[in-house]
């Protein structure tokens, strides 16, 4: 039986991943809760896309793998935003 994540789980996982990514990149104070959630969700999409390009099966990974995928993508997403806005 495969565990399918619902929208509520994606919001929680995305929020946690976005918050931790913002702590890693030093942007937590400027993002807020909604920004962290959106960063984590966009990070999940970005991380899933990147890992699928590398041949990693991202669909059957479970909650921990989904969180790590969101975290990876969120850190990359924040890094891209920082590079585009020239903020460190």
Automatic annotation (TrEMBL):
The cellular component terms of Gene Ontology attached to this UniProt record, alphabetical and capped at eight, are: plasma membrane
Report TM segments: 6-22, 34-56, 62-84
Specify where it is mainly localized.
membrane
Which compartments is it annotated to reside in?
Answer: Cell membrane
What keywords would UniProt list here?
Answer: Cell membrane, Membrane, Transmembrane, Transmembrane helix
The way it spans or sits in the membrane comes to: Multi-pass membrane protein
Query: What domain of life is recorded for the organism?
Result: Bacteria
InterPro entries with a match to the protein in the record: Transgly_assoc (IPR007341)
**Protein family membership:** Belongs to the UPF0410 family.
**Record's protein name:** Membrane protein
Give the originating organism: Corynebacterium argentoratense DSM 44202
Q: What is the taxonomic lineage of the source species?
A: Bacteria, Bacillati, Actinomycetota, Actinomycetes, Mycobacteriales
């Amino acid at each position: 039986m495969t565990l399918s994540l619902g929208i509520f789980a994606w919001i929680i996982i995305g929020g946690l991943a976005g918050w931790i990514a913002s702590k890693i990149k030093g942007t937590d104070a400027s993002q807020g809760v909604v920004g962290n959630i959106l960063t984590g969700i966009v990070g999940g999409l970005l991380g899933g896309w990147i890992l699928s390009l590398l041949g990693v099966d991202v669909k059957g990974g479970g909650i921990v793998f989904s969180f790590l995928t969101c975290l990876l993508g969120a850190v990359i997403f924040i890094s891209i935003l920082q590079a585009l806005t020239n903020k460190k």
